[in-house]
Every structure is written in C-alpha cells, then in structure tokens.
Amino acid sequence: RAILAWLSFRQMSWRYEEIPQAYQKTFRWIFNKPTSDDGWDNFSMHFRGTATTPYFINGKAGSGKSTLMKYIVDHPETMMHFRQWAAGDRSELIVTDFFFWNLGTSLQKSALGLLRAFMFTVLKNHPKLIPAVFPDVYQTWKDDMGEPSYAEIKGAWKLLIEKSATLLKLAIFIDGIDEFEGDHKDISEFICSLVSPKVKVVVTSRPINACLHVFRQCPSLRLQDITTRDMQLFVEGILVSHQMMAQVTKRYPEDTREIVAEIREKADGVFLWVRLVVKLLVNGLELGDSMEGLRRKLRSLPRDLREIYRRMISKITPEHQIQAAEIFRLLQTWQ
C-alpha cells in the first residue's frame, strides 16, 4: 500500500472528470464497420486483431477528441472486445487511461505522470507484482522516500511488462498528447514502443506535424470528418426539441431546418463551437428571441471560438455568471 501511495497522485483522474459525457447517441458510429468511402479505419478490429501499432485519433481543436475518448473508455462494448482479445490466451485484462492536460500540474502533462498512473492501475490490481517491479524500493522502503523519478518509473515499467507477460494483457488509452509538455516526437515514439502482442494502445492528438508523422502508418481517423451527424443529433436534441423552439418551428419549419444546417456548416467540425452556439441560441429563445432574431444572431456569430467567448463576456449579467464560468472552463480546455 505504501508503494501504491508513492506512485499515485491526486490529479490522476482530474482531467477525465472534467470532460463532459458524450451527448446521447453521439459517437455510436465508432463501433460500426466503416465503408470504403468513410475514410477511417475500423476501430473495433483494432481491439480484436493483432495490432502492432496504436490506433490514432486526430482532430482539430474543439472537435471532441477527449469526449470521444471518454466515451470509448466508459463504453461496455469496448470492454467486451478487449475481453475477447484477452481471453484468447486466458490472460487477465487490465484497462488503464491517461488524459494529458496542459492547464494542469506537471504530472498531468508529463511522461512521468503517464507512467505513474499506468503503474498504479496495474499494481493496484496485482500488488503481488510490486516486489518484482520495484525490488530496490521494496527492500529499502522508508516512509520519507522522495518522489519517484522518471528513470525509476521507466525501468519499473519495463520490468512490469516482462514480469506480467504470462498473466496480463493491457489496454491503454492516452488522450491529448498535443498537451504533453515536452517533445511531441519523443512522446509519440514512446507511445508506439508501448505496443506489443500483450499491449494495445489508443491515442488522440490535435494534428501536430510530429504526431502525424510518427503515427502515419497507424490505423486512424480524423474526427472532424465524421461528426456531422453527431452535431445534428446534438442540435436537434438541445435546441430543436426545446419547448419554446418547438412552438416556433410549427410556424416556421423551413427556418428551423436552415438554422440546423447553418450551425453544421459554420461549425466546420468543431463540436465545441456547436455547444457554445446552441447555448447562446437557447438563451436567446428563453429571453424572447423570434425566429428572425435567432437567425440574425446565428449569422452574426464568428467561427472563431475566442471571438464568441469575448462577445459572451461583454454581455454577461449576474444571473448568467455560473453559465459563463462553465463556458470559460470549456474555452480554457480548448485553448
């Protein structure tokens, strides 16, 4: 227990907990078989097959990569596929994840934090491996032992993979390596090195050149090319189905369809833009905006998220301070 406490840190799950849940029925396509025209590689096959590389999810800022990753990590179908893979040689499956966050502490944006989180998850499930993985620390343990170093943890990780080879299979999810505070080529190559017959990896990033180059041969998808239908589901579920919007739509059904289409088009694959714009339009509805007022507001909204944020701040009222705080958090994450 002392060594597990030594490995853990309070912020291990903070970023994961900050990420919003996927809106109902969005991202369900990730478990479907893509057609040849879809332009992305079969995700479920990555679970079941003998992958020798990570699966790489890339997408522009605000496209929903972290929300998708959280959806995948939490979804029972993910576990079903990985359990089938692990059962092939009767290994036990361990699932671990790490969500980089450039607004967090140094451990939330470093390779040391990544490996400490992974080691903690595996050894918490298999504490009997601790003496083999940390032989020196185990034998000379003191209550005032300093923080683990990167060299210690990296060496222990290699031992862990060796010692657990006949026992475990690992499914590793790494979100947001663009938020890694260091060399993106180095972290990308390190992530590739994690993959083995016993270890599968899924990784997300913005389209940084170093990451695109290292993962160029990996099965992949580009998120902003695939989420048009998800955005429509969100807009219809939050805006169009709003009681006040439903009343307006009865009189102006074509206008509503045009608003939905315009939101999709202006978003250009940025799901966060859609979320913020829908918030603004719903707020307008509740303050008495007409259909023409909504259309005028939508036409006037910039595509740039920072500009939308500035506009919202300039018009903030005391009763909207909680909403503004939430939007500020979203924008911080996006930036």
What report would you give on this structure?
The chain has 18 helices and 5 strands. By secondary structure, the chain is α/β, with parallel strands linked by helices. It folds into 2 domains: 224 residues, 3-Layer(aba) Sandwich (Rossmann fold); 107 residues, no CATH class. The chain has a 5-stranded parallel sheet, with helices on both faces. The longest helix has 16 residues.
The CATH superfamily of the largest domain appears as P-loop containing nucleotide triphosphate hydrolases
> What does the oligomeric state look like here?
single chain
Distance between the termini: 38 Å
Low-pLDDT stretches are none
What percentage of residues falls in helices of 4 or more residues?
40-55%
Silhouette: elongated
CATH architecture term of the largest domain: 3-Layer(aba) Sandwich
SSE order: HHHEHHEHHHHEHEHEHHHHHHH
Describe this structure in a few short sentences.
The protein is α/β, with parallel strands linked by helices and 335 residues long. 54% of the residues lie in helices and 9% in strands.
Q: Would you spell out the secondary-structure blueprint of this structure?
A:
Blueprint: H1 2-7, H2 14-18, H3 43-48, E1 55-58, H4 65-74, H5 76-87, E2 92-99, H6 111-125, H7 130-133, H8 135-139, H9 150-163, E3 168-175, H10 184-194, E4 199-205, H11 209-214, E5 220-222, H12 228-240, H13 243-251, H14 253-267, H15 271-286, H16 291-300, H17 305-314, H18 321-334
Parallel strand pairs: 1-4, 1-5, 2-3, 3-4
